[in-house]
Amino acid sequence: MAGNEAGSQFVARLTEVAAATESMLDRLLSPAPVPYERSRPERLIEAMRYASLGGGKRFRPFLVIESATLFAVPLERALMAAAALECVHCYSLVHDDLPAMDNDDLRRGRPTVHKQFDEATAILVGDSLLTFAFDILARPETHPDAAIRVALVLELARAAGLGGMAGGQMLDLAAEGRFAGALPQLSLTDVEELQAMKTGALLRYACAAGAILGAADTKKRAALDRFGATLGEAFQIADDILDVEGDPATVGKATHKDAEAHKATAVAILGVAKAKERLFGLVAEAEAALAPFGADAALLKEAARFVAERRA
Amino acid sequence: MAGNEAGSQFVARLTEVAAATESMLDRLLSPAPVPYERSRPERLIEAMRYASLGGGKRFRPFLVIESATLFAVPLERALMAAAALECVHCYSLVHDDLPAMDNDDLRRGRPTVHKQFDEATAILVGDSLLTFAFDILARPETHPDAAIRVALVLELARAAGLGGMAGGQMLDLAAEGRFAGALPQLSLTDVEELQAMKTGALLRYACAAGAILGAADTKKRAALDRFGATLGEAFQIADDILDVEGDPATVGKATHKDAEAHKATAVAILGVAKAKERLFGLVAEAEAALAPFGADAALLKEAARFVAERRA
Question: Which site among B38, B53, B94, B290 is 20 to 30 Å from A244 CA-CA?
Fold first, then answer.
């Protein structure tokens, strides 16, 4: 993180957004059932809360809220969309951590859901968080205009599904040689497609959600879409570089995992120096995409720099 | 099945609906990506098709379509909602069959998805089918009015999630003594709640979806809701009776599973004779709920009788 004033403003805002998202999720996922529900089974809601509360940078909620702010969307509405997106992000972590997937025991320094509870509960927690995201988006509190709510639903389903995040996770498992018995040869284009789907689609959606909530015109919608797509690519390259150069203590998870798995990443294909060049090119591109918003987009620009410069 | 004319009409219509649903799902889940998708990863779409095509009575789609027909909803629209609901039903089967859940190797006489492919693929297939359901419902082809589409989304999310099907599956695992180490003592009310959530919620949604698509007035909406809820309860009791009395060869799966697991079911609590009495009471109640629709609801009435009398 750059230590300049804009950087500090960004960190302060990210902290604020994280607290607001936490409190929105805490409210939405209250242990007591709401009137239209028969019950909220205790073990399930407890595990859903464990999976979604008390951790995470809440970077996707930040993007939703800052994008929405460009159009003066009321904070309560943006927080609903942000909470929905965070439910999808958390569901994906719970399922990805499962023994049959990445088999991780720890997440943010705590036991993963299937370790803390059990595998069946973890599967149901993921399913329920994913389903709950659409419940949240479809509620009138998210936006009084049904056309806007249904657009949020459609775009989230596409970002998270077969042609987005879930599809990207499938490509990622294939890239590890899970199904063929041997590591496939991935081109840079293959790697970019995998990452655009696995990580990029939700980051891109975060920015699109702000534009949808704000009923943005075509030009501004396209600008935020380009920002989100570029940011997503930068995010993944920065992650790959961290895996090579990061200190496990700072990063908070094991590093050098990609190289040990001989996994195709942009860094493995391009080398660290060229990957960094590309990363800073992407940040410049992301900042340029925000031109139509002028000074209003200062914090989003900081976010792009944060993504590239983060050490954890 | 009664061999009378209405019964034959019902069977003919169920067969027709199954074919139309199959062909809609086949089209929606085509292997080729649609323009807004980067790709449809081959193994994932293949396994999604395996999980959702080529089998099943398509009883939920039948209920959507027949309920929608009461309001002269165009068939193409009802088929979209039916396909979405069937995606949710199929996702639930794929995840329920997983080793960590019910650990089933066979489904409709074929290897389950995790047997035919692998566990990671099965998890992603379930996630992707669930997500895809919301993609389908949010498309303009489902209904030109966004308020109707978003109502379909909201109700499906609630029927399938924490307070519905997924919550019911959690209660079912708990009822098997999975978490406490011992079989809990379930009252008839507990069992009814479990079943209303696990099986009832989606059947009820099927009928509600027709009313939503048809912009039904409050009275007709409530009538279909009551029909769906009663039908759902009858469905589960009939299933429990089949488990006690059914011939495994006809039923197509092992019977006496509940008794062997000492599982609390309405039949275990009431005994077969009283359970049958209740079942036929529920069918009469379901038929009575359809009174506002007169002769138009003849096939839905047949459906209720079919549920009670089925041998498989």
Answer: B38
Question: Which of A170, A190, A195 would you mutate first to test chain B, the one with the most B CBs within 10 A?
Answer: A170
Do residues A186 and A175 touch, judged by C-beta distance below 8 A? yes
3-state secondary structure of B110: strand
CB A172 within 8 A of CB A264: no
CA distance B67 to B57: 17
Task: List residues bridging with B107 in a β-sheet.
Answer: B110
Contact B48, B20 (CB under 8 A): no
pLDDT digits (tens, 9 = 90+) for B16-67: 999 999 999 999 999 999 988 989 999 999 999 999 999 889 999 999 999 9
Q: How far apart are the first and last CA of chain A?
A: 10
- Provide the residue ranges of all domains of chain A, joining segments of one domain with +: 5-309
**Alpha-carbon gap, residue B47 to B302, rounded angstroms:** 34
Give the β-pairing of A106-107 and A110-111: antiparallel
Q: How many residues does chain B have?
A: 312
CA B185/CA B169 separation, integer angstroms: 17
Binary contact (B44, A167; C-beta < 8 A): yes
Of A159, A212, A294, the closest CA to residue B146 belongs to A212
Q: What is the pLDDT of residues A73-126, one digit of tens each?
A: 999 999 999 999 999 999 999 999 999 999 999 998 999 999 999 999 999 999
Structural element, H or E, at residue A145:
none
What is chain B's Cα-based Rg?
19
Cβ contact, residue pair A162, B120, below 8 Å: no
Closest chain B C-alpha to A71 CA, distance in angstroms: 22
The arrangement of secondary structure in A5-309, i.e. its CATH architecture, is Orthogonal Bundle (1.10)
**Which of A135, A137, A158 lies at the smallest CB-CB distance from B158?**
A135
Residues of B in contact with A89 (CB under 8 A): none
Residues from chain A that touch B135, judged by Cβ atoms under 8 A, are 154, 157-158, 161
Of A109, A114, A122, A12, nearest in space to A54 by CA: A109
Run of H or E including B121: helix B119-138
pTM of the prediction? 0.96
For residue A98, the SS3 value is coil
For B5-221+296-306, the fitting CATH number among 1.20.120.1200, 1.10.600.10, 3.30.465.10, 3.40.50.720 is: 1.10.600.10
Task: Identify the CA nearest to A56 among candidates A27, A22, A103, A20.
Answer: A22
